[in-house]
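ok so for the tutorial part 2 we go from a plain amino acid sequence to predicted structure tokens. step 1 is just haveing the sequence, like this:
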Amino acid sequence: MSANKGWWVPPEGEDSVSEKFLRKTRESPLVPVGLGGCLAVAAYRIYRLKARGSTKMSIHLIHTRVAAQACAVGAVLLGAVYTMYRDYIKRTAPDAGEK
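step 2 — the prediction. this is what the tokens look like for a chain of 99 residues:
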């Protein structure tokens, strides 16, 4: 048994968790934005739970889920639009100038 039981060390040649997270963030920067938006909406709606008035708990939770999913889907949509812009419009603009 190892004396240092509390920490996981990746095998040689593999990235640590923070390095892997930073690499994935550079590859697709809107994933953390979507996740952050989702968590922010959920935290705000849970904070406002006591001020929901006469609304049923289940309806409040459904609205929370829908708002959080809207943030995630919005981030995916922005990522897709940015990727299409980068791949098709930005790439074809120099080609049109050469012809």
